[in-house]
Amino acid sequence: MRTAIVVIGAGYGDEGKGKTVDHFCESFSPETTLVTRYSGGSQASHTVVRNGIRHAYSHFGSGTTYGCSTYLDENFILNPIVFRHEWEELQQLGINPTVYANYKCKITTIFDMLMNHIDEYDRGNNRHGSCGLGINRTINRHEDIKFTMNMIHDKSVLKRIQEYYPKVKLPNDYILEKFQDDLMFMFNNLMFDDNSIYKNYQHVIFEGSQGLQLEEDSGNFPHVTRGYVGIRNIIKDLKSFDECNINYVHRIYQTKHGAGPFDHEMDLKPFFSIIDQTNIPNEFQGSLRFAPIDLDKMFNTINRDIMHHIYHNYNVKFNYNLCITCMDQIRNSEFVPYILNNKFCIGDDKEITDILFNKCKDNGLNLIFLTGV
Prior knowledge:
This protein is α/β, with parallel strands linked by helices and 373 residues long. It is built from eight helices and 17 strands.
């Protein structure tokens, strides 16, 4: 039986998707399992700790440490600078990744990244919370000037992109030369395929980026990511499988990295022993922000995504799960904060578990608990 496993963040990102993908990989052999990154790009970093190796994956699937191959589908945005840095870092860790990519993948250039930085500086106190990696700029520029993997030998494209951004001034020629070198490095270390690659694997794990509450139509504009991180990007690919397990991931509390409204934001140190080595403060997003888990908002967000595929008449068995991470970070099992009916509540871990179980049951979801993030 061919199985698809989909991992989707149900919050603002940083929910533990890397941990969840790594967990599901353990159920299968690496040779029969492919991990597909089907949305986002280098801004979506997913941390995995396995066999004493800790790595935050951005251009590679979170099953890489386990030995699974990666496929970057056409909705993934490639960044040659980040790709090369991560590839060399993995080599130093003794990991030799196998990565396939679709020729239609968009490519972020040094000009997209620098224009992204200028945008955020110009916004002053009204920043959007960008990661500074040029994702939105790449998508917008692509509407006028396309730059995909099957175009990298056309040197005129980079020149046109440079002219597209008159505000971007490179201090020297070396920066562009280095980018071109990174571009060819990426090209030479990728293998190319299309979505027909799925038929070669018994199990395909679709690894989403960021979270549903950052989708461009989530209602949180402009503090969003361009594109969709839920099921709609891959629904057409799921019809070839016998069974599909869709997993929505959320911490036992909420996080948000970047600017924008964030209901019920508060200091959670009295309630949780939060250790997060990945989401360190940075110039563009600031520090990671926290709030109690908002149960109604989370389930409403999940149901909105389910509606994008529930009516497709595929001969596929669909199962839906909610994966809650970071239960091991609860400081005192008698004091667990949560939001229910827009009210701040505190209960013990049994109470919050019972509420989650009953809400999952009402919404047709199975409940899975995972430690760590």
